[in-house]
Write a structure and sequence with these properties.
By secondary structure, the chain is mostly beta strands. It has one helix at 7-15, and strands spanning 41-44, 46-52, 63-68, 74-78, 88-92, 97-102, 109-114, 121-125, 130-134, 142-145, 148-149, 152-153, 156-161, 167-171, 182-187, 194-201, 204-209, 215-220, 225-231, 237-245, 252-258, 264-269, 273-277, 283-288, 298-304, 310-317, 320-327. It is 3% helix and 46% strand.
Length: 339
């Protein structure tokens, strides 16, 4: 059976910075793992289009970071694309077409978000520990943040913005070593100050504010749990607790999006499905692909249309990188772009 490498390790292998140090997650059979809880329901997603094929150089493709721009267009990143191939794509979901927004010879981008402060597109470069920004059309690339935070370089995975434009980042540091050295980091909107909000985490991945911007949800990939950071008006942590334990079986907790009602959409790496919880931790639904879908192994992320309920989920595996759509439980907001 073909094996599918864990996402951050694949990123490192793709750009050739470090050796691949871990093995992958076996594909789950339909109906396996992450069974819906009592009273939850199944939401059946439908295929929109295939965006990418497996890259010959890396043996995989991995779509991530779906986010809507100010015109309502959907942008998506391909984590494993090499230089010359599209690393950021703009998708016309109506016409089922896409075009390249950005490529380069260096970055391994795991997320994309538009800043409410300057309107630029921000990308997390997992392998180089940097945050890069582009203008909305993909030009004018700038390094927004680089270097160490409290003496250690980041492996930035997902990004969330507060209303002022400050960045909150899941730092998956320690993943390749299997050590709980991950962090949640805040970077001010000018890129001049970085602050560690939480540490000793097990490969933090998804990150999103709740519907009221009172706190942050973040997932830990290697512990299959979602935690909650309560914040004060200045973005300082007032409390932290484990909020949800995800019964994922062989699947692991990936990115998180939040709808207008505060429901959490938890992506699953290692299973082409998504778990949906309310803010109290009740399992409301499981988003599944049609039974006939084959060769798709991870539903990493989702974006819900701003002001609407149409959701677009990034799904990848040996069959390629796809967009699937489903009806979300509530309307989309800025926090409905999953990092």
């Amino acid at each position: 059976m073909q094996r599918f490498p864990a996402r951050p390790l694949a990123v490192l292998a793709t750009i050739g910075v470090l050796a691949l140090t871990g093995c992958g997650t076996e594909r789950a059979a339909p109906g396996e793992a992450a069974a819906a809880g009592t009273g939850s329901r199944t939401i059946r997603a439908q295929k929109v289009m295939r965006l990418t094929q497996v890259h010959a150089e890396t043996g995989m493709t991995l779509l991530e970071g779906p986010t809507f721009d100010g015109n309502g267009d959907l942008l998506v990143v391909d984590v494993t694309a090499l230089g010359g191939a599209p690393k950021v794509m703009r998708v016309d979901v109506g016409r089922k077409t896409s075009r390249t927004v950005h490529t380069d010879d260096r970055g391994a981008y795991t997320s994309a978000q538009f800043s409410p402060y300057d309107g630029r597109l921000y990308l997390s470069d997992f392998a180089h520990g940097e945050i890069v920004s582009l203008d909305p059309d993909g030009g004018d690339p700038r390094t927004f943040f680089s270097g160490e935070v409290d003496g250690a370089r980041m492996n930035p995975d997902d990004i969330a913005f507060d209303r002022r434009g400050n960045l909150y980042i899941s730092d998956s540091r320690g993943l390749s070593e299997g050590e709980a050295r991950g962090r949640v980091v805040r970077i001010d909107r000018e890129g001049g100050k970085a602050t560690v909000l939480a540490e000793d985490l097990a490969a933090p991945n998804g990150i999103s504010f709740d519907a009221d911007h009172r706190g942050l949800w973040f997932s830990e990939l290697t512990e299959n749990r979602i935690s909650y950071l309560r914040l004060d008006g200045e973005g300082e942590v007032t409390s932290r607790h484990t909020a949800i334990r995800v019964d994922g079986g062989i699947a692991q907790t990936d990115s998180i999006a939040v709808d207008a009602d505060g429901n959490l959409y938890q992506g699953l790496h290692g299973r082409a499905a998504m778990a949906v919880y309310d803010r109290h931790g009740e399992r409301l639904a499981t988003v599944e692909l049609p039974p006939r879908a084959e060769g798709l192994e991870s539903a990493t992320n989702v974006a819900i249309t701003p002001g609407g309920t149409k959701a677009y989920m990034t799904v990848s595996g040996p069959a390629g990188g796809y967009l699937y759509t489903f009806d979300a439980l509530a309307e989309g907001t800025r926090q409905s772009n999953g990092g």
